[in-house]
Amino acid sequence: MASVLEKAKDKFAGIFGTDESKKQSNEPINTPQQQKLVAMVQRDFEEFKSTRQSIEKHWRQEQQFYMGDHWKGLRPESALRPNSKDNIIGSQVESIVGKLTGWSPYPDFEAQEEGDEQKAADLNDYMPYELRQIKFQQKYIRAVRRMVIHGPLIFKTVYDPTVEGGRGMNRWTGQNDIIPVDLGTFFPDPRVKDFINLQDMGAIIVKSRKTLEYFKERWQGQGKKVTSDDDTDDIEIFNHESTNSEGFNRDYGASYGTGIEKSSTAGLIEYWYRGLPKMISSDDKEIFNEQAETKLMDGKDPSESLAKANGDMEGIHCIYISADGVFLEHKAYVYDHGKYPFTARTLYPDERNVWGKGFVRDMISPQIMLNKFAEIAVETMAKQGNGGMMYEEGAITSKQVNTWKEMRSQPGAMLPVATGGIARVKELEGINVPSTVFNMLEYYKEMLQKLPGQFDSANGQASSNVTSGEQAKSLMAAASTRLNTVTDTIEEALQDVFEQYIELMAQFYTTERVARVTGRSVSVSRDSLVSQVPSQYDTGNTAIDPMTNEEVPDIRDVTEEYVPTFDILVNISSDKPHDREYWIQMAFNMLQMQDPVTQLPMIDGEAVRYTIQNGRMEPMDVIKRRVQEESGLQQQIQQMQEQFGQLQQQNQQMQQQLGELTSQKQMQEQQDREFNQQVQQQKLDIEASKVAGGLMNQIGGGV
């Protein structure tokens, strides 16, 4: 009966639960071993968090100025001032982001080992489709914008087993993903001072907010013990002014509404660490042993799986706990590649910490001064158009003074004075705005261009000092030079990201993923990516040698699997031409060119048609492959034509020989006929001679 009531309560509970759901259970939260791990994670988290707090104030200010909230904290909000804020910082940031994200960040794979060329070609065709499936373009833009504003560029490359996709016979479960990491959730090892050495960190902690339903669904046993908590200051760093959550500038409504959302969420801490696992759960041990048995049955080396089952191999592991101290899971050897699933770089390094800085930090001071000088100009002009006045006592009565204050600046105002007092009222002229104010406005505008290296000419604005197109091109090229180091940093980070992505595909994509690319179907799976080499495995047992009947070590011939290494190139040049006419003209020019090595056309007619339809060219490797295929077909057609010509020549020769034979036959027949005629004539002559001789004999006898 009690279970029925509990089910009824759960059925009618909203997303924020019921009052009954908040009751605590008397069941112990963690075992002693689990509690030791929880204490370790909480201790490291507090240390990691404390070392990051010094940089959070800079991030808040940078985000504040990017969003255009320039006067927050500088004066009371009740002050009646113009509060001028020309958000040049926001404009410059978006200009830089637009240039950096103009290229679609697709990787180009090239095989390092002989025999992997087809794998590289399949990846080149498949990866653009895969990245579109995970909507990587928008995630990439978000990560680059964070880097431009704050400095760090952080990606997390993971496998999500809950995603399902595909259709018909090509259904699959599980999807890799590339996630831009929120700065507030990321707590790296403070002992490492450069993100280039991220893989050398002892641990990396990620804290995020999850709903209570999430905990119950993912960790059905321990997840029910998680309770909601209100501590969000450590990750919601952009919603308060300092580490004190009760600061007067804290805007609860911006992130939490009435605050009730906190009652249905809790903090999830992921503690990623390197080395030997601190524990091996029974589930992990069973999985690794099953993998080893399956591999050995298939003739593959099971050494790695057995080492994982025994906890004898170093790798990357993850401990999951809730913010209130509930141990959720320890996952040993999460990924086969043995690396943290994070890739990070910083825009401008800082020798004091790992975070560095972005473009905005140096632009804040000029932006403040620009706002202040603009406010001075506005306020001075207001005083100039509405100067003060002087009057003698009695010229304006006390009641009339208030009327003057309220009505004096309004157009068409009728202002009363005392009798005979109009001559005793005098207007004061306003003060002109000094030219130095406008000079300083121009100075700080120029500074806001010099600091990021993005001038108005680079953003498409014409300058009166530029009198030719070549000068404009030179200025734009010079502006893009400042972004070269930025693009190099992003490209290097993405190479690491895509390298991990391929490793995850080889680990988890056990079923084929099919995509339709450039008129053909391409599929990628673990079997198509993994390479094998012969090896031997010592089972540790003994076997009887059939030749000597003696016991010998049981050593079996197996194959060792590995993921081949590819050269990965990512091109995100900041000066990519977007003009449709540029690409079309380029396509027509290349149509007339030949490859000096292969003597094949650089592009084909299909590439020109694609450029006209889409306003951009296809990847050159796609065009090259199609040109080679077309060249192969043309060679086959040419060979067939040559063979056909040879057959025609042979046919003509045979016809000629047949004609000669026919002529010879006719001549022979003619000769035979003539010979026969001669023979017949001779026979006739002989017969005639016989007849004549007989007649002569008869005539002579009769005489």
Model description:
Residues 623-671 form a coiled coil. Pfam families: P22_portal (PF16510). Keywords: Coiled coil. It comes from Paenibacillus ottowii. This is Portal protein. Helices cover 46% and strands 18% of the residues. The termini are far apart. Helix 10 runs antiparallel to helix 12 (435-450). The strands form 7 sheets. It has a 5-stranded antiparallel β-sheet with strand order 4-5-6-7-8. It has a 3-stranded antiparallel β-sheet with strand order 3-2-9. The chain is flat, with a radius of gyration of 44 Å. The chain has helices at 2-11, 32-66, 88-100, 117-133, 136-150, 212-218, 252-256, 282-297, 303-310, 360-385, 398-407, 435-450, 469-481, 484-508, 526-529, 580-591, 605-614, 620-702; strands spanning 107-111, 152-165, 172-180, 186-188, 203-211, 265-275, 315-322, 327-331, 342-346, 348-350, 353-357, 389-391, 425-427, 513-517, 520-524, 531-544, 551-562, 566-570. The chain has 703 residues and is an alpha+beta fold. Mean pLDDT is 82; it is low at 18-23 and 242-260. It has 18 helices and 18 strands. A hairpin with a 2-residue loop joins strand 10 (348-350) and strand 11.
Distance linking N and C termini? 165 Å
Q: How is the quaternary structure best described?
A: single chain
Radius of gyration: 44 Å
Report the sheet-strand fraction: 15-25%
Largest sheet: 5 strands, antiparallel
